[in-house]
């Protein structure tokens, strides 16, 4: 067994970055967020809950670990005039009804196969633009490597990955510590009410830089009413299992990638190290790979217009002869 320094050890946690989002921008974002409809889609693995809106080229957005599709409504709704958008809740997250036994989750590739089944059911004849944040970005990359015929382009927002030298050791059998999984396993999962959950989260931890609108969107899509009060849809045990299932195969997936992609990383507290960022930037299919100034790991909430610009740029590149 190799003892390897945890890859997520940072000089400053992303939730302490302190970037705040304009209240005026959030008011406008909240006003348009209602344009996305909640639907249930039956796949071979079971029912998937998703938000959909718009028409045009197919766009799927995948959320971060422990989050849900509703958090990104404000980011995605302004794109509804240009894209047919689907933002789904992953297995064990949000309102999706797929099996969520933590013991059955072995790797993030499981989420990638869920995603591929979903887009095949919705529109099996089109090539999709896949965008995602954090785990959702890495899952989108894995899906594109598994089924290049289904993916036209990628927008990757601070995708978590093991340092490539660590990933090679993990593939060879090394075991690395995972404090994020340990922390998630200890997370409180049941509250007396949604109001109590909101008070517990507001201005704290990963929610420190979030606007009120973003926190409310997260709770709307991530809490389930129960006899006990209100419970996290992503149970702490499943969130911990998700962190432990981080894929060691990002370098291999990148080598197989055929479609154009953009990678945007946070300036501080990013889950993308400089060495891996440089490798992505050197890839022949890379249109852009850089850090967004003034952002943390939650860059889709902090600079949504930069993300929308990246999505539109990928779409334009896919239409070029």
Automatic annotation (TrEMBL):
The source's domain of life comes to Bacteria
Q: Name one GO molecular function term.
A: catalytic activity
Domain AB hydrolase-1 residue range list: 61-308
Q: Which Gene3D superfamilies match?
A: alpha/beta hydrolase
Indicate what this protein is called per its UniProt record. AB hydrolase-1 domain-containing protein
